[in-house]
Amino acid sequence: MTSPDYNPVVTALKLKKKSRLLEVTFDDGKTFQLSCEMLRVYSPSAEVHGHGNPVLVTHKKNVNIKALDPVGNYAVKITFDDGHNTGLFSWRVLYDLATHQVDLWEKYLARLRAEKASREPLIDMAVKYHN
Predict the structure, then answer these.
(1) Can you tell me the distance from the alpha carbon of 84 to that of 88, in angstroms, rounded to the nearest whole number?
(2) CATH code of the domain in which 29 resides
(3) pLDDT tens digits, 95-118
(4) Coil, helix or strand at residue 9
(5) DSSP letter for each residue of 28-83
(6) Residue 1 located in a structural domain
(7) How far apart are the two ends of the chain, measured CA to CA in Å?
(8) What's the whole-number average pLDDT of the chain?
(9) pTM (2 d.p.)
């Protein structure tokens, strides 16, 4: 997806919990906003990607990020409020998700329709965050 010659570096991460967005700024000066739902359904974890057969992650419309933990100088571990925390989002993965998010989101919605699945949460929850 990203040119093999470009190794993106994240220079800033800003979590916007109320709008469920992660704002990511890269060293090329580009800033993107990724929804928590998109990050969750496209998590680079083995749980989501399986063994070459990606799992369709459903019911994550209201998912949010609980914690962001840096991993060296190359990635961030995201803990979602549904308990998922096994994906390491490298800077390249974040850049690829950000620069291809429109296409990836359309593919996700198409797959949901094809499998008659839903983004809607199974149980509506009101979550309050304390800082």
Answers:
(1) 11
(2) 3.30.2020.30
(3) 999 999 999 999 999 999 999 999
(4) coil
(5) TS-EEEEEHHHHHHT--SHHHHTTTS-----S-TT--EEEEEEETTTEEEEEETTS
(6) no
(7) 37
(8) 91
(9) 0.88
